[in-house]
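Dock beta-D-glucopyranose; give full complex structure.
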Amino acid sequence: MRARQCRSAVLILTLLLSSAPLFAQGAPLVNAGVEARVDALLGQMTLAEKIGQLNQFSGGGPTGPGTGRTGYGEMVAAGQIGSIFNVTGAKQTNGLQRIAMTQSRLKIPLIFGLDVIHGYRTTFPVPLALASSWDPSLVENAAAAAAREASAEGIRWTFSPMVDIARDARWGRTTEGAGEDPYLGAAMAAAYVRGYQGTRLDDPSSIAACAKHFVGYGAVEGGRDYNTTEIPDRLLRNVYLPPFYAAVRAGSATVMSAFNPLNEVPATANAFTLQQILKREWGFRGFVVSDWTAIKELMAQGIANDGASAARKALLAGVDMDMESGLYLNELTAQVNSGAVPMAAIDDSVRRILRIKFALGLFEHPYVAESDTPNRLDPVHMELARTAAEESIILLKNGDSRPSLPLAGGTRSVALIGPLADDARNMLGSWAGRGNPADVVTLRAALSDYAAKHNWRLSVEKGVEIIGGSDAGIAAAVDAARHADVVLLAVGENAPDMSGEAASRSRLGLPGLQERLVEAVTATGKPTVLIVFSGRPLVLTPLADKVSAIVQAWFPGIQAGPALVRLLTGEANFSARSTVSFPRAVGQEPLYYSQLNTGRPAGKVDLTHPPTNGNEKYVSRYIDETNSPLFAFGYGLSYSKFEFGPPSVSVTTISARALNAGGQTLRVSAEIRNTSSRDGVEVVQLYIRLRGTSVARPVRELKGFQRVALGAGESRHVEFTLGREELRFWNIDMKDIVEPAALTVWIASDSQSGQSTDVQITE
Ligand code: BGC
C-alpha cells in the first residue's frame, strides 16, 4: 500500500508540474526576498521562540481552554504566541500587536484570525446560498468586501473558505460550503481565495485565506458532526480533494485540518493527507492550522495517551499551528530535547508561519489606522449584499397550472405569516462575523415599505415560534390568510442552533409547530408562497404539494428583505440554482446526483408505489419512497423560460493519448433561447458520463457552467471546452488520467434533464 502511494506521489507530482502551476495567478507566497528574510529570522530564534510561533489562542471571549486565560499580553511579550483570533476592533488588535512589536525580543508580529465566513460587518448570504448563484465572480467580490472590512480592523486571516463536499443534509455544516459537487466546489473555493487574497497578499486590504477542513469532514457518518469518515483513497481524490486543490492552486495561504478521523487516522495527525498530499504532492508552502483543540482531541480519538504524544503526532503529521489546545506550547520543548521531534520539523513549521507573516507585509505594517474603523455600513457593500441575495435565492416551485409569482400588480392584500417574517438575527446565518442584527432589513420591513408605496394591505402574524412554543397564534394566522389575496409564509430553521457547527439533525422537516402552521394556512385555500429560510435543504414533502410556490431563501444576509421583495414582486428575476439535492425523506441521505449506476438501476420502474412484482422489486429502490430528490442539483426556476437546442460536438472521436498530453480539447455547444417576454439569466450546465472505464464513473458529473443573460426572445450559442482537466479521474491504478471511454455529454438546465450526444475517446 505504502509503496503504491509513494509511486503515485511521484506520478502526481510529474503530472501536476506538467499541467498546472502550483500557485497559478494567486498572491505569491514564495519569493526570494521573503525566503531570505525567513531564513535570517529563523537563524536568530531560540527553541522557545520557535515553538512560540506555533501557538494560536482565542482572545476576547471566555478563558481559552489551552491557557485558562483571557488576557494574553504577557505571553505575547514572552514570544509564546504566533496568532490570536476572535479579537476584533482596531484598538484591540493594535494593542496586542504593540506588545509583540515592542516588548518581544524578536518583534515578530502577531497574525490576527477570525471566522470571516460570509462577510464581516456586511453579512452576505451564507456560503451555501452564495454557491446557489453559480457566480464565482460574485463570490470573489463578496470575499473581497469582507477582506476590506476585516483588514481595516487588523484581521489579516480568515478561517474561510470551507470547501468540504457535503452530501448529507443532516450535517449542519452543509450551510458553510458550496454543496455536493466537486467541480462547482472547486470553482467556488478558488473564487473565495482570489477575493480574500487579491492579487497581492501584502496589500493591507488583503487577508490570508484558509481552506478547511482538510479533509473529508463533510462525509461524517450519519451526518453527525465530528463523527468518523471512511473515504477510500480514490473517492478522496476524485471528490473530496479537488476543492482543496483548487484553493491551494489559487494561492490559499493556509489550510485547516479537520476534526474527523479519516480512515481511522484523525485528520489532525494524518501524515498521508497533510504531508504527502498537501505538502509534497501539491507543493503547498503555506501553513496548516489545527481546528479548535483538535490536537488534544487526539487523546479522545484514541491515538495518543498523553499530551506529549498528541503534540508530537500532530506536528510530525504536518499541523504547523495549534489552535487552542496549548499542547505545542507545553509539550514540544521536551519532545525536541529528547529527540522525539527533530528540530528540522519545528523549523519547517516556523518557516511556513513566518513566510505568511512576511508575505502579508505584517512586519512593515503591523498596525491599522484606528480612526478609520468603519462605524457604518459601506453603501457599496450593502448593494453587493442585496445583489448577492437576489442571485442566491432559488425559486423551486411556481404554481401548479399557472404561475403564482411574481405577485401580480393587482395584488392588494397580503398576509405575511410565519416566525421568520421579521427575524433579523436569523437572516445573518450561523457565522455572522461582526454582523449586527440592527443592520438587517427583514422581509416584513421591506414589504411594509413596498406595501405603503403600492397601496397594498399588509397584515402580519407570527403564527408559531421556530422551535417550541404553542399553537395559540395559529388561529390569528389563519384569519389573516382568509382576509388576504395571497399568503407569504416565512418559515424555516433557527440559524445559530439548527445550522452550522454542532447542529446535525436527524429529522429534516420544518421544526417545531411550523408544519402545522403551513397545513392550517393552506387549508384556507388561499394561494400560499412558502419562503424557506434554512442552512440546508429541508424535507419539504408533503407541504410542497399544498403551497402554490416555494422560494428557498437560505439565510440571505443583511439585505434579506429588499432582495426578497424585489424577487417576489418581479422587480428582479430569479436566477439561482440549487447546489444540493433536496431529499423527499431523511432516509434518502446521503443524497447526491453524481451517483454510480447500480447493476439494477430502477430505470423506468414506477417507484411511486411499493413493488407489486419481481420486476418492480429487485431493483435499487426504496419500497416506500422514490429514489429521486424533490428538487435536483442544478435546479431552479426563473420568470423567464429557456429552451435548450441539441448539443453538438466539434469532434466525435478524440484520443485519450492526445488528451493526456494536454492541448487537445473538444468543444460542446448548444443554442439556448429565452422564449419568454422577460429578460433573465439561465445557468447553463455541462454534464458528462464516462462508460467502459477501469472504475465505474458517476451517472453524471458537472464539468462546466455559465450564467448566461438572455433578453426576452434572445438566443445564444453557448460553448464549453472539455480537455484533460475535465475528463481525467483517478483510475484503477490510482493514476490521474483520461482513459479510453464512451463519453456522453449533456448541456442542460439541471442534473436530471437535457439532451445528450456521444463522443468516443479512443486509445
Ligand atoms: C470550527 C472551525 C473554526 C474554528 C475557529 C472550530 O470549531 O470547526 O471551522 O474556524 O472553530 O473558530
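Observed: The chain is about 30% helix and 15% strand.
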